[in-house]
Amino acid sequence: MRATRALQCVSLLTVVCAMSSFGVSLPGAQSPGGASAEPGRMVRPRQLVHVVADLEKTLAFYRDGVGFTVASPPASLTSSTLLHKVKSTSPNATARAATMTVPGSNLQFQIIQFSGVTATPFTQRLYDPGVTRFSIQVRDIDLAFARVKDRGIVVDTTSAGPVFTQRPRNTTRAVMMRDPDGFVFEFVQPGEPPRTEVPATSNVFNARSSLAVDNMERALAFYRDHLGFTVNSQPNFVNDAVLVLEGTLRAKARTAQTMPPGSNNMWVIWEFTDIERTRRAPAPQDPGASAISLEVENLPALLARLGRAGVVVETAVPVDLGGGHRGALVRSPDGLLVELVD
User: Fold this and answer.
1) What is the CATH number of the domain that holds 288?
2) Would you say residue 14 lies in a domain?
3) What digits encode the pLDDT tens for the residues 231-268?
4) Span 66-77, pLDDT tens digits
5) What's the total number of domains in the chain?
6) What is the pTM (predicted TM-score) of this model?
7) String of b and e for 56-66 (b: at least 16 CB within 10 Å)?
8) With contact defined as beta carbons under 8 Å apart, do 198 and 207 qualify?
9) Does the residue 16 lie in any domain?
10) Got the DSSP string for 219-287?
11) Which residues contact 159 (CB under 8 A, 6 or more apart)?
12) How far apart are CA 18 and CA 12, in angstroms?
């Protein structure tokens, strides 16, 4: 009897392997997250990108004030889909960039300054669709806030300082700000001490990018169905304490927690209502513009699928970035620049 069962198992395994070898899908099989089973997929987040007016000034703020580590000091930028897009209409444009690492995060932070091209600066508002929010997690929020409060920031939180956001459930505190370039960022101190391998000498222990959108369902369809984000929580309205944090007491806001493929931290998607909003879709060279850069597999196939779905593709064909890498630039439904690199 045991020999018969063993033969049956071997036979079944043989059939399964044969079906897989010939590309036959098994019932119930699906790709991770909400991504399509078609070729072309996101692998991991690469970078959050800020376009700034003064590279050295911004670098000093995040290095000396926030506590990031410089991975690549200011230098000429050559391999970038953002630069390629700008040079397609302004051939004399140039750019310089610096890259920083965030303790505990596999998401890098890149800042870019363009020259030789007309640019229109603008200031972000945290509730406008297309705006990114840099959510930086810290051990001691009072220490973190003290290090930046006199460095040209604007505090949007109603109390002008850190507030409790989750009482009585926990003692999480946060403060919402805009950096000297007008980009939205926040410090968050969790209610429980973090479980992390980041040395205790670093106040920052992780960070993520949160995204403001016009329509929650449309945004989730883009990030889940096309890029493979996993939706960890259904959209829910935030409490009044969070609106105090945001400085938007008269508004309503819904959030959904998502996990990008390959990320070690969740990203939060925000939809505000009952407040005047402006969809942000700046040119790549505009100080105040932000972008997210994602590593992907099979870029041409992913671009073709996004194009069929009506996604705005800014670069018609993949750009040769050197070193065997290709890149492309698309827009999210909310106007955010999304760089795809394979």
Assistant:
1) 3.10.180.10
2) no
3) 999 999 988 888 887 888 889 999 999 999 999 889 99
4) 999 999 999 999
5) 1
6) 0.86
7) eebbebbeebb
8) no
9) no
10) HHIIIIIIT--EE-S--EEPPHHHHHHHT-TT-EEEEEEEE-TT-SS-EEEEEEESS--------TTST
11) 244
12) 10
